[in-house]
Specification:
252 residues, alpha/beta, Rossmann fold, three-stranded antiparallel beta sheet, 9 strands, ABC_transporter-like_CS, ATP-binding, NitT/TauT family transport system ATP-binding protein
């Protein structure tokens, strides 16, 4: 793959569930074309049931499209799933920490799966816990940590594997607004600082405006209603216009 090609590409992708013609069958994604460049932080925004999670799962290689082509770094993530070990990391809505492992042991988990030697994985895990403000809590178990701290451990676990692509499924929606805003800012800084590509699913316009350098708004069944770039130079006035445009699409 050349540097000019998108790192994630969906071409005329459709995904249906259920037996064709059955009353319970439905189309989740319909003829979607979406390309995501290296280093982008894409906020994928839409109403519940518009296909965001289905797109997420196809990019992650967890499900295969009914038709069309999905490629990640030039490869099929579903059919070549094993080749993506350590190259894609996922941050979920719930932290999904293992309760019988300490914070540092949870961060080490992905590194263990990559067969990283114990000394190196411990140092890497400690580095990321420190970066995310958790030095001194590395030996705490999840039950002893606040919701925000647990999600910081989850983010540390994702970054520790040095995956090039981060897939984030509403990772801050369960947190209070103040904690969520602080973590969003920290997450966005780390993505940019480390040259990662991130796809960020959200229901929140505020969250999309805070974290994305590109916002894609979906309509049912999942197809692009609007595709909006943002830059560091995007003013607050321009963001308010974008907010109004998104609200209009979501209200339709």
């Amino acid at each position: 793959m050349t540097s000019s090609e998108p790192i994630i590409s969906l071409k005329q992708v459709s995904k249906s569930f259920g037996k064709a013609g059955a009353a319970s069958s439905y189309v989740a994604v319909d003829g979607l074309d979406l390309q995501i460049g290296q280093g982008q932080m894409l906020a994928l925004l839409g109403k519940t049931g518009c296909g965001k999670s289905t797109i997420f799962n196809m990019i992650a290689g967890l499900t295969e499209p009914t038709s069309g082509i999905v490629t990640v770094d030039g490869r099929n993530p579903f059919r070549e799933f094993d080749s993506f070990r350590g190259r894609i990391a996922i941050v979920f809505q719930n932290d999904r920490l293992l309760p019988w492992r300490t914070a540092i042991q949870n961060v080490e988990l992905g590194l263990e799966m990559l067969d990283i030697p114990a000394e190196k994985r411990r140092a890497t895990a400690m580095q990321w816990l420190t970066t995310l403000g958790l030095r001194g809590h590395e030996n705490d178990y999840p039950h002893a940590l606040s919701g925000g701290m647990r999600q910081r451990v989850s983010i540390a676990r994702a970054f520790a594997t040095d995956a090039n692509i981060l897939l984030c499924d509403e990772p801050f929606s369960a947190l209070d607004e103040m904690t969520g805003r602080a973590l969003r800012a920290e997450f966005a800084r780390l993505v940019k600082q480390n040259g990662k590509t991130a796809v960020f699913i959200t229901h929140s316009i505020n969250e999309a405006l805070e974290i994305g350098d590109r916002i894609v708004v979906l309509k049912r069944p999942a197809n692009i209603a609007v595709d909006l770039p943002l830059t560091a130079a995007t003013t607050d006035v321009e963001k308010e216009k974008i907010r109004g445009q998104i609200q209009g699409v979501l209200a339709a």
